[in-house]
Amino acid sequence: MEQSAACGLHCTKINHIGVKFGKEVVLKDVNIHIHCGQLTVIIGKNGAGKSTLLKAILGEVEHTGNITFMDMKENVAKKIKIGYVPQSINIEKHMPTTVYDLFASCICHIPVFLKKDKKIYQEIKNQLKLFGADRLIDKSIGDLSGGELQRVLLSIATKPVPNLLILDEPVSGIDKNGTQDFYELVNNLKTKYDMSILLVSHDLELVKQYADKVILLDKEVIKEGSPEEVFNSREFMAVWGR
């Protein structure tokens, strides 16, 4: 990939995150250390607080605790740059907005209804090409398949290169081949950019195959470690009854 890596040696720490909705405790004292160059996957049953944790990291819900980012090269705390791919976005079929329109609106201040800027158009096309999606640049968003849309959203989320990439069940509704392709893309990002990636997933087989670290969440972290350590643990057995 042509962009320079944003990460290098660094660490992201989620410190004592707690979330309440009224009197209901949704998250309780969650602590996670996310290493660079690793795919950290959060698993858990429905209602375990997985998506709420991501929203807390993104600042979309009120929470206790904090998120810190340390640049270990300079040994200083810095403001973290986060890329985000949601589980889904609301798109009407055959809506006229193109991939270029969506991408341009995210990276520049030029109104998308004006004439295409050739320089920005090529810049976007080059970024899409890194994810095998450059042929989609003039295609309407509403006409994209699930796999195509996720490639586009991943392209947007990684420009500029983030320190932490957050993926909320990004392959929901995508077929098996598309899911495998997406995980391969994520794996390449991790290795080429030394990027920290935090992913929520319910596909345990793919988690076993691709994750470096697994977090088992049930309102709090009840087990963490390698896929083997987590999937063979008493805590995992208790949650899934396996």
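the 2nd protein, sequnce then structure:
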Amino acid sequence: MRKIQLTETILRDANQSLMATRMKFSDFEDILPLMDKVGYYSVECWGGATFDSCLRYLNEDPWERLRKIRKAMPNTRLQMLLRGQNLLGYKHYHDDVVEKFVELSIKNGIDVIRIFDALNDFRNIRTALEATKKYGNERTIASGCISYTQSPVHTPAKYVEMCKELKSMGFDTICFKDMAGTMTPNEAERLFGGVVDALGNDIPLVLHTHCTTGMAYMTLDKAVECGVDIIDTATSCFSNGTSQAATETMYYAIEQCGIETGIDEKLMNKVNEFFKPIKDKYLADGTIDYKSLGTDSQALFYKVPGGMLSNMIANLKDMNAIDKFEEALLEIPNVRKDLGYPPLVTPLSQMVGNQAVMNVLLGERYKQISNEVKNHFRGEYGIAPAPVNKELEAKILGEGKSPVDCRIEDSKRTGEDFKAAEKALGDLAQSEEDIMSYICYPQQAEAFLKRRKEKQENVVKYSIVEA
């Protein structure tokens, strides 16, 4: 009997897409032992924006959060999303940093590492793959991920070639990451039909999509029909809108087709009952914005992923400029074309979104250009899928100058990042994980570690007084 497995996303991408990753560990701690028995292929619980959010907003140690989840869920694969050479930050890191991050992720409990590059420049995921193979164990799975989008240069034939390359690199599974939910059923049929014809059935295929445009359920159904083995879904109370399709809905649809899922129906439904009041709490305090819950078919035009949409809403609210939301959305396709049609996924989604907002708020296109966009034109993130706007390139680089065409991380295994972090933190650092947090997010990590030290000192003082 054929089996389709489900990855549950409520602890990471559903939470990220609907509420900008503001869910606290204490919100879901009690349900973890039950989730461990449901029968998911994996539970996506780390990576993406969770690391930044823990340090910046939740006053949590992301590494400790992962260790606690691992302890509560010993039997379920824990999954993370890794941005290749970007790790979980917004710039490229040197190879020794990437390798150590992967080592620590596995050490602290990660089983499935889904590795992607925002430009699908696979030079930028090789180091992370090699580290996963080096430090992994019998449970470890390296999943090569393709950022899916549509543009004049993103064709089914091109995607088949990408899959062949990922397979030859040695990945264990191949995932298509449709972050904006723009893959249609027809595209899924042509895409996965072509991939299966080219690769056969000897490497599992994964589809990650969102409900942003209303396409997800139809697309997932067609993808399963055409050979996909694993799909990403979200517990129903945190599904739909900019999140994923509902776990329960897809379970029932798949099971009624006579396909096995391995899911325990009763336990699956108990997970949803647990999270309902948590969703209500975040709706009541405005953390979940109603704009994130609806379907917006215009996303088929501007290609905005769920996490990017919720962050844009939050940022525009902070600037008292939410009235510019629709105008900023319409500017996104223009900026994307100028940047060479990058898939809108972190960090490119933030670059494109922030530049679009800047263009709208200043009333003039590229009056100010972010440093990240400048670095993109310099080639520091990799090769753009299509030619960039030459006038804008000349404005940034200067007339007659060309971007770099190499991995800027090549041979940079000097250890300088670690030495600098250790020197900057001093006695604030208590572990390799603390050092790594600082390398990824210096300001946020240092502030968190200072708060932690102060708390620890207060506990000691209180203990002495009590004694």
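Residues 173 and 203 are 6 Å apart (CA to CA). The longest strand covers residues 141-147.
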